[in-house]
Design a protein that fits this description.
Elements (H helix, E strand, L loop, with lengths): L8 E3 L7 H31 L6 H29 L4 E3 H34 L4 H4 L2 H26 L17 H5 L7 H33 L5 H30 L7 H12 L1 H12 L2 H15 L7 H4 L1
Antiparallel strand pairs: 1-2
Helix pairs in contact: 1-2, 1-10, 1-11, 2-3, 2-10, 3-5, 3-7, 3-8, 5-7, 7-8, 8-9, 8-10
């Protein structure tokens, strides 16, 4: 095949040839996907329904849960279906859709995490100006900028990647369509354009990371000056979940795209892909709810009224 325009499908990684192991993979991914689905939907519903959580921090967390749900839904269901139906194929358009939506959700999430770091900085370092700087209009603009930037970022990568001629077969050593795997199928120097775009993305990534680090240096400096231990504990409780999510997101992403070529192997690539595309959307709801009493209370209230009561949720829960 001399050009990607002649490709009608790609072949994804086959976890195992034995039917029993394929079904085990399906069951494992199903459990992970349902856990991610439940955690993110509970978070979205609790924040949307409880008026006590209608604050900038929870508004951003609601957007984060939507993005997490979208990112894991882009890759895992197709892999599950392939294992269940004993196939490896994904259509050309399906592959392009996976690349676009994965870049869209992950890119938007990273920009959103940067906005959330700014929100925590203003809340702790400039509390008297918090209402002015983080009003509802400002929050909507920042969230819209994150979503819009993710869309533009995904469009650039997808359009550039699928304009490259592919003539090295159609088999990828990955359970979803991943740009590095697609570049390995390239047969011309055109792939250098995508390499250049990835380098630009790296600079953008480091720029956002610097903003997050600077925000947290100032946050921790301000927190350590708080005289009361209770005040310091409350401030740390507000920031540590976000810092944990950022650390997980950044560390898995860096390992996936910055690991030395000498360490590359199909098995390692597969593990790394699971770490950055499956693990964060699954554990983020757990991380945010562990130290957040308000969110846990809202979730349990929602569960109680949904499953253990025939009454409608009180009006105060919605307003």
């Amino acid at each position: 095949m001399s050009n990607s325009s002649f490709l009608t499908e790609f072949l994804l990684w086959a976890f195992e040839d034995k039917r029993e192991l394929q079904l085990l993979h399906f069951s494992l991914f199903l459990g992970i996907y349902l856990a991610a689905l439940l955690g993110n939907i509970l978070t979205i519903s609790a924040i949307a329904c409880d008026h006590h959580l209608h604050t900038p921090m929870y508004f951003f967390l609601l957007n984060l849960s939507i993005l997490d749900f979208g990112s894991i839904s882009t890759t895992v269901p197709k892999s599950m279906a392939n294992s269940l139906w004993n196939t490896r194929a994904i259509s050309f358009s399906g592959c392009a859709a996976q690349v676009f939506f994965l870049f869209f959700f992950i890119g938007a999430e990273y920009f959103l995490l940067t906005a959330m770091a700014y929100d925590r900085y203003v809340a702790i370092c400039k509390p008297l100006h918090y209402g002015t700087l983080m009003g509802s209009r400002a929050c909507v603009k920042m969230a819209a900028a994150a979503w819009g930037s993710g869309f533009l970022y995904a469009g650039l990568h997808t359009g550039n990647t699928f304009s490259i001629p592919l003539c090295e077969g159609n088999t990828m050593d990955q359970f979803f369509c991943e740009v590095p795997q697609l570049l390995r199928l390239s047969c011309s120097d055109s792939y250098l354009r995508e390499i250049g775009l990835l380098i630009f993305s790296a600079f953008l990534f480091w720029g956002c990371l610097v903003l997050i680090i600077v925000s947290y240096v100032q946050i921790f400096t301000a927190v350590l000056r708080i005289p009361s231990e209770q005040g310091r504990h409350k401030a740390f409780s507000m920031c540590l979940p976000h810092l944990a999510v950022v650390s997980l997101f950044v560390s898995t992403g860096m390992f996936a795209y910055l690991k030395p070529p000498s360490t590359c192997s199909p098995a390692l690539d597969l593990v790394v892909a699971v770490l950055y595309s499956v693990v964060p959307p699954t554990v983020n709801p757990v991380i945010y709810s562990m130290r957040n009493k308000d969110l846990k209370d809202a979730v349990w209230k929602l569960i109680d009224w949904t499953f253990f009561s025939n009454k409608k949720l009180p009006i105060s829960f919605y307003k």
